[in-house]
């Protein structure tokens, strides 16, 4: 049996040992929030095997990831619709106690990250300005829902057309449900209709596009500084180039 490093950054490390995932976190409170969110979410999650102050042990999920940001998803339209129905169940659940970032906090972060893009020259200033204007369209009040908060395609597992689980709940809180939908379809814009077939309600697609831009703008520096690649090669930056 080998030990596989699944993810590592300055905050946490995830390793796989056989059919067990061990999440080691420098902030035990973050693991507490994750375990609490998994326990209260009315959707499939990984089984918690045991818990210690800085380590959370989770059972491996059946199936495979819904997709990857940098290449097309091979999951069927029915699988995407099943994911949409699962996310809708989450958004309809009673609100958790934790409240996510405010619109003011998101706006401040957007300003700082746009300044980083310009200062580093990762994108031309006019492309940054266009992406920022698009991102700002998402920063409007919304009815809060129970959101995952980091719901990209690698955090959702499917087996055929069945959702077997959602992982990485450390950002779960009250928030804008469209942020979850945007996170899931970032880089997979053509699958939005399939997702909404299962989600079952009309949504503001312009705000989803705004959240696509916001997420790419605010995530890129963190990804670059935590070993996920040079800024110019990040999938998020490629999305911004395409949107601009």
Keywords summarizing the entry:
244 residues, alpha+beta, Aminoglycoside 3'-phosphotransferase, Chain: A, domain 2, five-stranded antiparallel beta sheet, three-stranded antiparallel beta sheet, 8 helices, 18% strand, globular
How would you describe what is shown here?
The protein is of the alpha+beta class. It has one domain (about 65-244): Aminoglycoside phosphotransferase (APH), C-terminal lobe (Aminoglycoside 3'-phosphotransferase, Chain: A, domain 2). The chain is built from eight helices and ten strands. The chain has a five-stranded antiparallel beta sheet. It has a three-stranded antiparallel beta sheet with strand order 6-8-9, covered by helices on one side. Strand 2 (about 10-15) and strand 3 (about 20-25) form a beta hairpin.
Spatial strand arrangement across the major sheet? 1-2-3-5-4
What's the total helix number?
A: 8
User: Tally of extended strands?
Assistant: 10
CATH level 1 class label: Alpha Beta
Tell me the CATH superfamily. Aminoglycoside phosphotransferase (APH), C-terminal lobe
How would a crystallographer describe the biggest sheet?
5 strands, antiparallel
Please, how many domains?
A: 1
Strand content: 15-25%
Assembly form of the protein? single chain
Q: SS-based structural class?
A: alpha+beta
CATH topology: Aminoglycoside 3'-phosphotransferase, Chain: A, domain 2
Q: Report the CATH architecture.
A: Alpha-Beta Complex
**What's the N-to-C terminus distance?**
47 Å
Poorly predicted regions are none
Percent helix among the residues?
A: 40-55%
Q: How confident is the prediction overall: mean pLDDT?
A: 94
Determine Rg (CA atoms, Å). Answer: 18 Å
Run of helices and strands: EEEHEEEHHHEEEEHHHH
Shape: globular
């Amino acid at each position: 049996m080998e030990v596989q490093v699944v993810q590592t950054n300055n905050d946490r490390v995830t390793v796989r040992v056989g059919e067990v995932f061990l999440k080691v976190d420098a902030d035990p409170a973050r693991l507490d929030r994750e375990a609490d969110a998994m326990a209260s979410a009315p959707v499939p999650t990984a089984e918690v095997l045991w818990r210690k102050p800085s380590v959370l042990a989770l059972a491996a999920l059946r199936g495979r990831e819904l997709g990857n940001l940098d290449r097309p998803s091979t999951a069927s339209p029915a699988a995407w619709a099943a994911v949409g129905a699962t996310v809708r169940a989450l958004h309809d659940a009673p609100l958790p106690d934790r409240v996510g970032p405010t619109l003011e906090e998101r706006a401040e972060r957007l300003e700082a990250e746009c300044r980083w893009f310009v200062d580093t020259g990762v994108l031309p200033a006019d492309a940054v300005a266009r992406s920022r204007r698009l991102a700002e369209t998402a920063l409007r009040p919304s009815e809060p829902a129970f959101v995952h908060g980091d719901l990209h395609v690698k955090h959702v597992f499917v087996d055929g057309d069945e959702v077997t689980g959602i992982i990485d709940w450390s950002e779960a809180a009250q928030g804008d449900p469209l942020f979850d939908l945007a996170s899931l379809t970032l880089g997979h814009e053509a699958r939005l209709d399939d997702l909404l077939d299962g989600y079952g309600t009309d949504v503001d697609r312009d705000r989803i596009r705004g959240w696509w831009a916001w997420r790419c703008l605010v995530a890129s520096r963190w990804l670059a500084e935590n070993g996920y690649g040079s800024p110019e090669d990040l999938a998020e930056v490629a999305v911004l180039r395409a949107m601009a």
